[in-house]
Each structure stands twice: as structure tokens, then as C-alpha cells.
Amino acid sequence: MPVVGTRWKDSFDAFAAADQQQAPQAGGVLFVGNSSIRLWSGLETQFADQPVLKRGFGSSRMLDVAAQVHQLVLPYKPRLVVVYAGDNDLAEGRSPLEVFASFTHPVEQVHAVLGAGQDVGHGDGARGGGRGRHGREPWRGSLLSGNGA
Fold first, then answer.
1. pTM for the full model?
2. What pLDDT sits at residue 124?
3. Residue 20: alpha-carbon gap to chain centroid
4. Strand, coil or helix: what is 85?
């Protein structure tokens, strides 16, 4: 298992403790990404008809999600992964295509380990305020990944 840098250690320790308390159900919907996921109040209620797991870690970038996919995604064996990250990458000056390139890496890893039938989608950065905060057109991960929208 890859070592998490000290920047995210508290978050990943909290994930491990929560998993010890109650093992997440395989085949659920996994939400990963930045603090928008972590702070999404009511997520579990909004998706009450299916098992949902939140694994958001504050100020993370798509690069960070990609680097931690073995800990963030693969152990949970989800049927669907929803990624919301990229705003912080854009704020640091990465282009939308660079963010998309970071997104494709975890998608490829998920498909290689869990099967090509696993759905992985990205939330639209416009809903997170990316356009106004970062001064550039938000990228549309759902379109770029071929998932429609």
C-alpha cells in the first residue's frame, strides 16, 4: 500500500479508523476528491437508497487523487466512483487538459484492477465555483471521459 504523505496523513488515518469501526460495503458509490466531497452535508441522505462512501480530503488536487487511488478507491471495490477534484489544480495554474490527464490515470487503474465495466465520472467544476474563483472556463470531465452529460 502506498505511503500517504504527511499532508494527508490525518485524513487517511481518519478513513482507516472509520473503516475499522464499520467496514464499507463493496459495490457501493464512492465519492472521492477535495473538501467539496468531505464537506458535502446530506450526501448519504441524498443517496439513501444505495451504499455511499465519502473520501474527500481538503485542498487536494486531481494529482493527489490520482496518486492515492490504491488507498482511496481500489480497496472499496465500488460499482461507481464519483471524483470531484481539479479546482485546486486550476488554481495552481494547471490547464484543463493537464487536469484531465491526471483524471485518466486513476480511471485506467480502476479499470485495470476492478474491471472495465466500473463507472468513473467527474463532477463538473462549474458547480464548485471554479470559473469565478480561478478565472478560467471549468473543464467538463464528464464529457472528456466519454460519460455524456
1. 0.76
2. 52
3. 21
4. coil
